[in-house]
Amino acid sequence: MTLGPVENTIPGSPSCSRGKLSHLSSLNSILSVEWLHPRHSRALRLISKNGRCNIQYKENTGQMKIRRLSLQDPFNTFMDMSWPYFLLTFALVFAGSWMVFGLIWWNIAYWHSDTTRHLENSSSNATRVPCVTSVYSFSSAFLFSIETQTTIGYGVRSITSECREGILLLVFQALVGLIIDCTMVGLLYTKISRPKNRSRMVLFSKMATVTLRNGKLCLMYQIGDLRNNNKIVGAKMSTKFIKMDSTQEDEVIAFHQTDMAVYVDESGDVPFLPSPFCITVCHEINEKSPLYQLSAKNIKHEKFEIVTVFEGTFETTGQAFQIRSSYLPKEIKWGHRFVPMLSQSISVSGFEIDFTRFNKTVEVATPLCSSKKL
Q1: Any transmembrane segments, and where (predicted)?
Q2: Domains of the chain
Q3: What is the C-alpha separation between 18 and 120, in angstroms, rounded?
């Protein structure tokens, strides 16, 4: 059985030809107008210079549901908290557990008739043994809760064998306190030792350059590591060209990504890195490059973003990391070259690096035409 062509699959369309569909064109026109709103007339940046993604939730887009989903992943929620909120939560967890158990201890003392102060000095109750000695109010119960969970044990307040519920509660609080201690200390250590704290020592140059290298136009930027004696192994670089584009069907792609092949000298995208280091990453502007038809004049009027990604593993801790940055057209210096930073040391047998030159460039003779016309 042969199936013929399906007609009018979209209501109101006369045929299924490759022409622009009216309602799809309207939809994408709305997207284009919203994207090119006057408030967005300035250059938009997807990735900031410090690597942060400039994307936020739109108002009234189910943020309550997002918060509920975040609570189902408490570990990453804690890791993503800012330090003030993290330390506040850290303190509230401990104080809350002390408060809850203090309330339970106070209820046990109340039902055991230990909450009346004068009972301790009454002759008729001289031989009476309380459930917990010196616990006769909520404040004393709260102090006993802190002493129990933190194993301080001043010796004034102590549990007796008179009430079984007190013994069970003591065991339960000790176990809960141990779990809270291990969890919160583990979270604190993980947050302190996150690789992004170490990755702050890895820098991208503020500007990229376009100049000739071996007779070919190349886009270049620098990556440097300030820390000594902490090598980065398995380093790899990647670069993406991001620009708003549309398909043949008039579908608007807000962030159309094109891969840009990068290399360091002749080592490809996996270079050898000493410590400290500074490398110049190069992208040859050839037929496969999205910059192939751009010249020094028209590149300034283009709207695109070049996102750079550097990832690897710290040798000392074995932690993987990823660092990002980006360059807008106004941050590309045509006809400039980076100043050399590495030189032979005079005092010792080796080399020395000068990071004061990290962002310095010099103007060199470079064709102003595009690589296509070169």
Answers
A1: 85-108, 166-190
A2: 83-192 (1.10.287.70), 197-363 (2.60.40.1400)
A3: 94
The residues with which 211 forms a beta bridge, in sequence order, are 218
Q: How far apart are CA 7 and CA 17, in angstroms?
A: 10
Beta-strand ranges (E) seen in 49-168 are: none
pLDDT, tens only, 17-73:
444 444 444 444 444 444 444 454 566 788 888 888 888 877 766 667 777 777 778
Q: For the range 197-204, what are the long-range contacts, defined as Cβ-Cβ under 8 Å and sequence gap of 24 or more?
A: 198/227, 198/230, 198/314, 198/317, 198/319, 198/321, 199/321, 199/323, 201/225, 201/226, 201/227, 202/226, 202/232, 202/310, 202/323, 203/358, 204/49, 204/308, 204/310, 204/323, 204/325
C-alpha–C-alpha distance, residues 239 and 241, integer Å: 7
pTM > 0.85: yes or no: no
Closest CA to 217 of 38, 11, 22, 368: 368
Give the whole-angstrom CA distance, residue 38 versus residue 40. 5
Distance CA 338, CA 239 (A): 19
Contact 199, 246 (CB under 8 A): no
